[in-house]
Amino acid sequence: MRISINVLMAAILLLASSVVSVALHGSEIKYGPKSAYSGYFVRPTGNGPFPGLVMIHEWWGLNDNIKEMADRLAGEGYAALAVDLFGKSTTDPAEAMWLSRGINPSSALAQLLAAADYLRVLPYVPDDKVGSIGWCFGGRQSLNLALNDPKLAAAVIYYGQLVTDPKELAKIKAAVLGIFGEADESIPMDAVREFDKALTEAGVRHEIYTYPGAGHAFANPTQSQRYKPEAAADAWKKTIAFLAKYLKGLAFHRKG
């Protein structure tokens, strides 16, 4: 069977267009008013456009695991800014609890809003294609950003503390993805079901997925006793599909 040159070239171009650019090496940056905030920023190569993602760490702080996740998301075609809400990271659970409980909610929100605005002004990030993703402590912060940033397009919440008041959730304009473990004692399934119901009542676009036998932090590979590889892989697949749907959808466009 002969294949014409035009058909072959079209196939090559289609394949090339589907390959995600290799991520640049990430770097520590300063952003916000008077460069008051710190974070880890990484983006794909090329001119874009690239959707933007605000990434929010667990109570361990901005550690190597979160930076590696940022690199992975850059490899998927996102400009990722992993915020540093603590100014340090730790492996000590007692210190992690102290850091997460000691944070000023207003200051944390200001930093998250500044991170989203930083991404929006980048020339290669469409200002209507910025989302957020967070795990555990960061999952709650991702929800908080969605509650307070009407321009946010998508918010991913991995086993974060929840808000279940439909009137409060009605503030959200973003699409919401919730990932939870059914054996999570910190975020019980009753709360997840109530969250799902409240989002529906509030008219918020959302997807909720739960994993039998998975506990808190099941998607963190550095937590060997809690890590559930199969559930984590499936959750990541659903996360990438969700982000592509809402941050790379039909409205995706080049700025300028």
Task: Please describe what this structure looks like.
It is a single chain. The protein is an alpha/beta fold and 256 residues long. The protein has a single domain, classed as Alpha/Beta hydrolase fold, catalytic domain (Rossmann fold). Helices cover 39% and strands 18% of the residues. The chain has eight helices and eight strands; from the N terminus they run H-E-E-E-H-E-H-H-E-H-E-H-E-H-E-H. An eight-stranded mixed beta sheet has the order 1-2-4-3-5-6-7-8, with helices on both faces. The longest helix is centred in the C-terminal third of the chain and has 19 residues. The radius of gyration is 19 Å and the shape is globular. The N and C termini lie far apart (45 Å). 43% of the residues are buried.
Describe this structure in a few short sentences.
With 256 residues, the chain is α/β, with parallel strands linked by helices.
Major sheet: arrangement of strands: 1-2-4-3-5-6-7-8
Shape: globular
Helix percentage: 25-40%
Q: What fraction of the residues are assigned to beta strands by DSSP? A: 15-25%
Order of helices and strands: HEEEHEHHEHEHEHEH
Distance between the termini: 45 Å
Q: Please, what is the average pLDDT?
A: 90
Low-pLDDT segments: 1-21, 251-256
Q: Topology of this protein?
A:
Blueprint: H1 5-18, E1 27-31, E2 37-42, E3 52-56, H2 64-75, E4 79-83, H3 93-101, H4 105-120, E5 130-135, H5 137-148, E6 154-158, H6 166-169, E7 175-181, H7 189-202, E8 206-211, H8 229-247
Parallel strand pairs: 3-4, 3-5, 5-6, 6-7, 7-8
Antiparallel strand pairs: 1-2, 2-4
Helix pairs in contact: 4-5
